[in-house]
Design brief:
The chain is mainly alpha-helical. It folds into 2 domains: 44 residues; 38 residues. The protein contains 2 helices and no strands. α1 runs parallel beside α2.
Length: 90
């Protein structure tokens, strides 16, 4: 009777350890999945996409502004050198 009690206790401890391991694995999978979703949202989420599109739009606008400023600078330089030629020599 005593040996039977020890075997029952062994099976109970084994089941308890197995159940605990399953619970730990479940929470580990849950945490890893949650973290993966979080990182994926940061990298590829709506906000990231909006920021990328806004930056691309700004890049196009900046290129247009640069072209406009270069043209304006060329005109101003031309006017400056024309004015220099009109001044009498000192």
């Amino acid at each position: 009777m005593n040996s039977h009690h020890v075997l029952d206790e062994f099976h109970f401890n084994r089941r308890k350890k197995t159940a605990l391991l399953i619970v730990k694995l479940f929470f580990l999978v849950l945490i890893v999945t949650g973290f993966g979703i979080y990182v994926g949202d940061l990298l590829f989420g709506k906000n990231s996409l909006e920021i990328l599109l806004n930056l691309q739009d700004k890049k196009v606008l900046f290129k247009k502004e640069i072209k406009q400023y270069k043209q304006e600078n060329a005109t101003l330089q031309k006017n400056y050198f024309e004015l220099l030629q009109l001044e009498p020599d000192n």
